[in-house]
Structures are given as C-alpha cells and as structure tokens.
Design a protein that fits this description.
Strands 1-6-5-4-7-3-2-8-9 form a 9-stranded mixed β-sheet. A 5-stranded mixed β-sheet has the order 10-11-14-12-13, with helices on both faces. It is α+β, with helices and mostly antiparallel strands and 636 residues long. α10 (334-357) packs across α11 (359-373) and α10 (334-357) packs parallel to α12. The protein is 39% helix and 18% strand. It contains 22 helices and 22 strands. The longest helix is centred in the middle third of the chain and has 24 residues, at 334-357. The protein is elongated and about 110 Å long. The N and C termini lie far apart (102 Å). The chain folds into 4 domains: 4-217, Histidine kinase-like ATPase, C-terminal domain (Heat Shock Protein 90), CATH 3.30.565.10; 224-364, Ribosomal Protein S5, domain 2 (2-Layer Sandwich); 390-490, Rossmann fold (3-Layer(aba) Sandwich); 499-539 and 557-633, Heat shock protein 90, C-terminal domain (Four Helix Bundle (Hemerythrin (Met), subunit A), Up-down Bundle), CATH 1.20.120.790. The chain binds adenosine-5'-diphosphate and magnesium ion (MG). Residues 37, 41-42, 44-45, 83, 85, 87-88, 96-97, 127-130, 177 line the site of adenosine-5'-diphosphate. Magnesium ion is lined by residues 37, 40-41, 129-130.
Length: 636
Amino acid sequence: MSEEKKENQFEFKTDVKELLNILVHSLYTNREIFIRELVSNASDALDKLRFESNKGTEIYQNDLELEITINGDEKENTITITDTGLGMTKEEIINNIGTIAKSGSAEFLKQLSEDKEQANNIIGKFGVGFYSVFMVSDKVEIISRSYKTDAKPIKWVSDGLGSFTIEELDEDRRRGTEIIIHLKEDAKEYSEKTRIESVIKTHSNFITFPIKSGDEQLNTVSAIWREPKSSIKPEQYNEFYKFQSHDFEDPFHVIHKAVDMPIQFSALLFIPKKNMDMFGFNRENYGLDLYVRRILINHQNKDLLPEYLSFVKGVVDSEDLPLNISRETLQENVVFSKIASTVTKQVLSELAKIAKDDKEKYAQFWKEFSRIFKMGYADYANQEKFVELLRFDSSANENKDQLVALADYTERMKDEQKDIYYMTGPSREALLTDPHLEIFKRKGLEVLYLYDPVDEFVISSVNKYKEFELKSVDQVDLKSLEKLGDSEDKKKKTKKLSKDDSKELKLLFAKMKEILGDKVTDVKISERLEDSPACLVNSDNTMSASMQKMMNMMGNNETIPAKIMELNQDHKLVRNLLKVFKSDKNDKYITDVTEQLYESSLLLEGYLADPHKLVNRINSMLEESSNWYTEVKKLD
Ligand code: ADP
Ligand code: MG
C-alpha cells in the first residue's frame, strides 16, 4: 500500500462512531428514510447553489439544470443519488461528513437512548441525517465536484465502521454530488425502481427541485403555499406539514394566507399538535422557511416570527424581496420587517379566532403552548392582541382546568370595581388557603390565580386591561374595597370589642411590635382577614410579595423585607391573647404566640428559610396544650 493511500485515510470522530454503531446495529424499522435524508441534503445543496448564483458568485458549469436523480441497479445491488448542487471540496467533506459539527449528535444519542422507536422521526432534526445511509449499506462512495471554479473533484469512500478515505480525482466531473450506495443483502429492495418511487412519493414529494429516475420525474414540484386555498385538500396540507416539519402527526391547525397589500406574500403556517420544545432540547430548531418567488432564501428564519410564537412551523414566500438578498441584510430590509410584523399579527388573529369559535380547541392550544406563548408579554407592538389571548385560573372556576380570559373577568366584575385582582402562589391549593384571599371571598370579588412563575412578569408588564388596573391582592388598598359591600350572608357576626378592650388591644399590638422589633414596620388591625388570625402585608404597595421575592432572588438578596403584620381582632386566638395581656402584660405566652404568628405568616409568603425555631416552638406549644387537654379530659 502506498504512503499516499495512508495519508488519505481518516478516522471518524468518536461521537460519529458511536452514532454509526447504533445505526448499523440496532435500528431496523423504517430504514427507507435514508432516501429522504439524502434527497433532503441534495435539495439543500441545490438551494445553496441557487443562492450563490443569485448573489452573482462565479459558478462552475453555471448552466447545468438544477435537479436530483435517483437510480437503482438491481444487478449491482446499488442505488445512486446525484444532484447538481454546490458540491464539496476535500476540506468541506472532511468537515461536513467526518464530524458532527453541531451539538446535534450528543442530543440525538440521548433522545435515542430514551426511545429507539423515535429514531426515524428525529434523525433529520439533529444534523446527522447522512449517516442513516449506513442502515442499509456497508459501502458508500461519494464523488463530488464543488461549484468553486478551481476545485478538484474528490472521491470519499467508507464502510461506516471507523474510517473513510478521500482521494482527489484527475479527470473532470460534472458539478455536484453523486452518492453510490452499495446495499446490504437484506436491503436489496432499495435497488428496485418501484420501491424507490414509493419512498419518494411518501417522504420527498414536496422537494422543490425535480427528482428524476431515468426519464421520469417522480415528484410533483409545486409550491403548494402559492396555490389558492380552495384548490388544496386537507390531506395535502397534512402531507406538506409532515414533510416540512419532520413531524409524524397531522398539524393541530393550518393557517394559509395570501396577502397583496401593501406587500405581496403568501404564508402557509402550522401549529403542531405537540410542543416539540418540551424539554428545552433542540432549541435552535425553529423558524419559518423564507422563499422569494418560490426560491428558498433562508431555512428556519428566526426573524419572521417573535420567539414566543416559535412553535409555529411553515413557509413564507414573497414577490417583493430581491432574490439576491443576503441573510445578513434581511433584518434591515423594510419589506422584510413589514412581512414579519404582518405574519405575527396574522398568527395572533388566528389564535383569537380559535379562542372565539372553539373554546375547547383553544384550551388544548393553551395547555400545550402557554408556557412559551406567555413570553409575548414583551411584544409591546402587539400587546393589545396578546392580552386578549391570555388565560388564567380564577376564584370563579371550580377547578384549575377551567380558563378565564381578562374579558370574562371584566364582564363579571362589580359596577364600582376599578381593579382586576390576582394572586400568585405555588398552586391552586396553596392560594385557596391564603389569608389574603379572605376579604375578597367575603366581598364576593373574583381573583385570578397565578401559579406559573412567568405569570408575575406577564401581569406586571401588561399592568392594565382596558381601563382596569391589575392588582395583586396584597397590594390592594382596602379602602377601595369598602364600598364594594360584603355579600349578605358573610357579614361579620362576632361581637364588637368594648371601648376599653379596644384600647388594650392597641397596647397589645404595641407590645407585639416591640417583640418583633425591626422585623415588622407595624402591627395593626386587619380589615382583610376572615378565618386566619394574622398575615403579613407589604409596607409599600409598589410590588406584590411574590414579585419582590423574585427580584430578591435574581439579585441574590436574601434579606426578608420588613412588612406590616396585620391581626384579625375578631379571631379567637387574638381575643384570648388579649385576655392574657390584660392579666399580665409580660406573660411569656404573648412572646411565643407573636413569634409563632410572624413565622407562620413568613412561611406562607415563602420567606422562611430556616424552620427549626418554628418547629421547636410548635412542639413545645403542643406539649403544653396536651397537658391542658389531658387535664380537661381528666385523663390523669
Ligand atoms: P444536515 O443536512 O442536517 O446538515 P447531514 O448529516 O444530513 O446533516 O449532512 C451533513 C452535511 O454534509 C450537510 O450539512 C452538508 O454540508 C454536507 N452534505 C451532505 N450531502 C450533501 C450534498 N449532496 N451536497 C453537498 N453537501 C452535502
Ligand atoms: Mg441532512
């Protein structure tokens, strides 16, 4: 063997080897997708060539027809796929096919180890599609001639095990790439014409370049998004969606629009059934495909839709953009920005339409996508539309699956009510027992329940709905609630304190303030409590408790803000404490109860970092009460 040969031998990177090993040995279902992957690469190469050509780059054999051919040879047991795309130089093929550039492979392998059945559905998404050819082949040859005028043709050969060889060819070749696949014995079927045809029909029908076999064209090259809506059957939309998104389910919703004024463009958009970004993997795999006059300019363009709508898939095609526009200058292009803002508005209008016409369908959408959708709070240009699309749980609901829009809330609100009330917490159950809710219950006022952490940001940036301010229950000025009247059956029934007792109560509160020191700014009578003895409220009303907590967390600030402690003067515990106070102003019991009430409230607000003291105190109080209990029950 000559020296030269050795020099041209390359090892696959470790992650590629690992991937190949899995592909070769363990995946046997649906191997036909290797054709889809290779055809998709050929189509990409043609798109890129056309792009270079439109830019005015000098191109080798510029007059070649842009097409893909695919031919089987049953005698030789091979299948050969060629394209007249941009081809690869030696350096490019080493970079593109010996290594996996993106972090794709690691993620792919992880996904794969979790669910092998999914391999065929996800392989194309991770930038590892080419390797699927080794599911059916133990020898693959690639002959490629780059579009760069001075490039040499090259030949790449590999058995898909550990290494590949590359040599430069001396004779000249047609521009583009030819892939000769020597099929394994058990993959013979892929050399048959009818088999190839059926795979192309299933997986590659929407490729926008002709795919030829012999003299025949296998695909129907048509830009379905350019055709009138009325001429397209639902199955065609579904098929196109699956082709385009690599999803294996039908879409949840189809949006097909043709706009003429002020700018011409067509958009064919899809909302998937499932949020494909569930676990935050595959983060970059979003964006709409941008076409100019049926020619792909930019795959997965990230600027046509804002990130909070990134779950939308599909294509946008415009007559009004220049063909040679570069990806870099797109963002500054006025026409492009207009298209982007119109597309965004259309998606929002379509969602509003679903919300209006089919509440159940909208609820499904909300369940799947609300997490990412809520990030739209920062889209000030569309805030009005966005706000109408928000949904919350509410005290008017019987369970957390029911959804309330701000419009529903305002329709039901009391005549004199000026604000929309909400509260935040970890769950519906937690919110239901929150002391802050009590006065709202008594007054029969609806409160929105927020338990998604992002809700707090959404609400504080939205701030207002129509003329109504959004207010956290712990920010509400209780005076504003006075005139809203209690609901009849919930009027307070407890006996009022005498004048003297009221005075004593003030002194007791002063004592409690003294016990708590700087931890509270004041101790005072509460107007909001019904069943609970105490709660903490912000001393200034600028921020809700949970917002404040979040800001503290972000600033790494662990200090507990000093709050006002409010006490329920009608509560049995407070009344009893008053009796103790009247008999002995310095009774230690007052100190214990005061500290306990304070820490319990802190706990409810989510501030109590160390529960030890609280638990110890509860235990000793339980012990004491057990003494009294056994005494009363005469158990000694
Ligand atoms: P992906 O297509 O997601 O990038 P693949 O594994 O399918 O991942 O392909 C890897 C790379 O190999 C491509 O990005 C491309 O640069 C190169 N490539 C593959 N097939 C061709 C082809 N027919 N012509 C030119 N380049 C190709
Ligand atoms: Mg590919």
